[in-house]
Amino acid sequence: MRTGASSPDEDLPTSAHVVAELRRALQDPEHGSTRPLVGRLVDLLRSNLEQWNLEDEARGREADNAAVAEAKRAIDELNKARHHIVEEIDAAIDRAVTQTASAPLATESPAMAFDRLSVLVIRIHHTERAAGEGASDADLYAARLPVLYRQLSDLQQAVDGLIEDVRDGTRRFVPYQSLKMYGQ
Known about the structure:
By secondary structure, the chain is mainly alpha-helical. Helices cover 66% and strands 0% of the residues. It has one domain (15-168).
């Protein structure tokens, strides 16, 4: 781990920028980013969205045992890839921010927080769609939105705070490493 101040030319995106990019990617499947870190965050969102959709299929009433087993195997493969993306994101953040070795350790890495953020953006997206579809239960989904928006705001503040604390040398993180062995 390095010590000293962050390099000002290696600026990290704010969580608001990341959320805007993730929302754009949900609206436009072809959307990408010219910024490598943001591009990997969009990849993380897409992985989480694919997993979300597979989980929905596996929970469907028409899903038989074979379909559920197939979805589980596909979810395991997605999780393996997702963990790799998270590791890459943390490595990129670790390269961009000089950490202070003596700073107290954060309980989660920035990439793990961004992972939760991407899932929350997906949840909001699906809830907004359900609230606007005119179905008989649309009002139930609409009632959830203020809570989800507050959770998003809180998580954005936490992510930005973590990165700022790391920059300031008041906290540090250990880049995430998945040691789970899928299918072995």
